[in-house]
Amino acid sequence: MQHQNKNDGVSEWLRKQNRFSKEELEKLNALFKKVTTTNDNNGNGSAFSYSMMREAVPKTQSMDRVMFKELLHDTFHMLTEDIITDRIFAAFDKRNDGLIDNDEWLFGLSVFLKGTLQEQINFAFYIYDLNSDGAITKDEIFTLLRNSLLKLPQDEDGDESIKELVELTLKKLDTDHDSRITLSDFTEAVLKDNLLLEALGQCLPSDEVCQNFFNNIDFKN
């Protein structure tokens, strides 16, 4: 889910997508509208079309970083640290303008809720590659583990414990043993052991949340 320009194919994907049903798209639009505005929902229940889907949410409506973080916590039950929630926001914000519009919202949720394993591997790698240089380094692993997994005091003993965990993590994920984790390394490791997908911190909703999402969420204003 790397950043692209305004012609990034998000809208084209929405026209062709078949991952969400009509009813699911309507619910996702309603949730987006509920989060981003207090205006009444003006849906009239008529025949559904892509153009109506876009018109249902004004182009000026968008989700900012604060709204998104609250949504991750309250709706997806993700208790991740700011460093990861900021990266998740960046992954959704494909146009890199500091806001998530309705198209980006739907595109991001296609991976978040119904992504293939490879799509989720790509997503998680993007989250963990903090400087987006194509590799996860020891420093990035250290930062992620300190902020996301451990609540140790910031002292030398705590740092040494994290450094030991960094080395253990590298052994699991660095399949070509060059002291950095590329997407190829990460993919190979996760395909062998799916539990390694979120080894550096939760960046996707749980299977239970995904399976029950459309039944459990109040999509009404």
UniProtKB/TrEMBL annotation:
Q: What is this protein called?
A: EF-hand domain-containing protein
Source species, domain of life:
Eukaryota
Q: Which UniProt keywords apply?
A: Calcium, Metal-binding, Repeat
Quote one Gene Ontology molecular function term: calcium ion binding
Q: Where is the EF-hand domain?
A: 80-115, 116-151, 161-196
PROSITE patterns from the UniProt entry:
EF_HAND_1, EF_HAND_2
Q: Which organism is it from?
A: Parthenolecanium corni
